[in-house]
Amino acid sequence: MIPVTKPFLPPREEYDRYLDGIWQRNWLTNNGPLVNELELSLKERLGVPHLLFVGNGTIALQLAIKALDLKGEIITTPFSYVATTSSIVWEGCTPVFVDILPDTMCINADLIEAAITPKTSAILATHVYGIPCEVQKIEEIAKKHHLKVIYDAAHAFGVKVDGKSIFEYGDISTCSFHATKIFHTIEGGGVFTQDPQLLKRISFLRNFGHHGPDNFNGVGINGKNSEFHAAMGLSVLPYMKEIQSRKKEQASFYGEQLRDLSVSFPNTKEVEDYNHAYFPILFQEEKGLITSMKALENNGISSRRYFYPGLNSLDYTTGYCPVSDDIASRVLCLPLYHDLTREEQRMVCRILLRVQNH
Ligand SMILES: *Cc1c(COP(=O)(O)O)cnc(C)c1O
């Protein structure tokens, strides 16, 4: 059985060492020392000035929308995980979908201005598979029309744009540290902003609005994360370089082995410090995807239609996005995780080639 993804678990004794400390202190959650240590370590590793560790990547998005006090319409991408859209709707705003670029699968910045109305308050775009959006263009449009920008950078851990962490772009960037993501804390997320005022606001929002034990600074929520989750992050972090270089090798091995398969790959060539979090392939037709997926399944290999369906066709959304609809119908993510072996990769590729050539 080959899963599509597998969470990395650090050596047990390294996690246990953190647990010993938790038992000694009897401090389990509420901004404990391990949460602080993880925030510091991540800031250092990513080279970012500010970051807040929160419960998950979805609450990170909701905190971002709330902190910026967004109302009305938010321009967003149809090609992302459902949390990108559901967070907008959950916060009482309306998602307005703008189609994507076929080569990066990120929102097509050239189509954004046509979607702006007097009700538009922000742009919420996803760096799909860790491939950066056109951040410069989006920033110019946002400035011109006085819009806020949030990036859902759930896939983009470690990626850079023009030498800077991708998390430094937009008014706020968010990340997910879920067990299936390249860096994980079991459940967890990060909120990033350059603006210290905004950071302060989010830190109140994250903790019920508490300003001391008896005072509150506005309506808050429970967006905190625990010492146990921070401990997992601290135990995983030292292995990130190794995990990323393994995934990079695996991705290029897939690339070689699949040379003769009639599929295309998203354009990641120019991405700085690309993280190879996923390995998406784009079939020529949905039919080919379905037969390939079945053949893999019959051989005990999982793959995933990530992302399908497009977020413009949920039962609570609408939007005309032909490029995204087309790509969502043809894209399949192949197994990719730290200890996937060459032999397993060869088997995946053999099956895909056999289906095509039969
Ligand atoms: C995983 C993911 C999220 C949600 O993160 P959770 O930590 O699972 O809540 C949001 N957006 C995208 C693009 C994701 O892939």
Automatic annotation (TrEMBL):
Domain of life the protein comes from: Bacteria
Pfam families noted in UniProt: DegT_DnrJ_EryC1
Cited SUPFAM superfamilies: PLP-dependent transferases (SSF53383)
A single GO BP: polysaccharide biosynthetic process
Keyword Electron transport listed: no
Recorded GO MF terms: pyridoxal phosphate binding; transaminase activity
Keywords per UniProt: Pyridoxal phosphate
Positions carrying N6-(pyridoxal phosphate)lysine: 181
Keyword Transferase tagged: no
Active-site annotation: 181 (proton acceptor)
Record-stated family: Belongs to the DegT/DnrJ/EryC1 family.
Name of the molecule in the record: dTDP-4-amino-4,6-dideoxygalactose transaminase
Organism from which the protein derives: Algoriphagus faecimaris
